[in-house]
UniProtKB/TrEMBL annotation:
One of its GO terms (molecular function) is carbohydrate binding. Belongs to the tectonin family. This is Fish-egg lectin. The keyword Heme does not apply.
Length: 203
């Protein structure tokens, strides 16, 4: 799993042993901690391990309240993710920015079921257990819940909203042609090693 942020100029990854690495130049350097999923974005550096949620604060991982199996930090300084029951949650900007330690966080439950939920400048997208694709309307940093879902044609096992970058995966990747919102034309396969699952365009 790779996570890249233009804002923070950071690239992080975790391996099958849950070790965390950061990219320095052309080399991966292991850093302290153990995570199953790590995300870098405008909201900072967050991760999950055994459903517990962690935020990187001052160079150390701090556990925060809540339980998620997947987390996303790509929104405009807000957090999103799903738990083991595929319940969807978000954390609005004020709570995201101030989150640290054992403070009780006001996670917002979003109606619906998804196995993966990803946000970016162009909006929030998700896929469910049947690999159906959904777009969430009217998401903002505060409040972060949005208003409604709309299904988008196609099937995907996961989705990330982000800018172009490179990854090394055996599975094919797909690009949504058009804006990063409902109303794009279709999904088309993209060349291997190009990570552009949803083109970012401001509305």
């Amino acid at each position: 799993v790779y996570s890249y942020s233009d804002t923070l100029t950071e690239v992080r990854r975790v391996n099958s042993a849950d070790n965390i690495y950061t990219l320095h130049g052309d080399s991966w350097v292991q850093v302290l901690g153990s995570l199953k999923h790590v995300m870098v974005g405008p909201a900072g550096i967050w991760g999950v391990n055994n459903n517990n949620i962690y935020k990187l604060v001052g160079g150390s991982w701090q556990q925060v309240t809540g339980l998620l199996k997947q987390i996303d930090a790509g929104g405009d300084m807000f957090i999103a993710g799903v738990n083991i029951k595929d319940d969807v949650y978000c954390l609005s900007r004020p709570a995201t920015v101030s989150a640290k330690g054992a403070s009780d966080l006001p996670w917002v439950n979003i109606v619906g079921k998804l196995k993966y939920y990803s946000c970016g400048v162009g909006g929030c997208w998700g896929v469910n257990s049947a690999d159906d694709i959904y777009f969430r309307f009217d998401v903002s940093p505060d409040p972060c819940a949005g208003s409604r879902w709309e299904q988008v044609p196609g099937k995907l096992s996961m989705i990330e909203v982000g800018t172009e970058g490179e990854i090394d995966l055996k599975s094919p990747l797909y690009r949504y042609k058009g804006r990063c919102s409902v109303g794009g034309l279709s999904w088309s396969s993209v060349p291997k090693r190009i990570l552009l699952l949803c083109r970012l365009s401001r509305f």
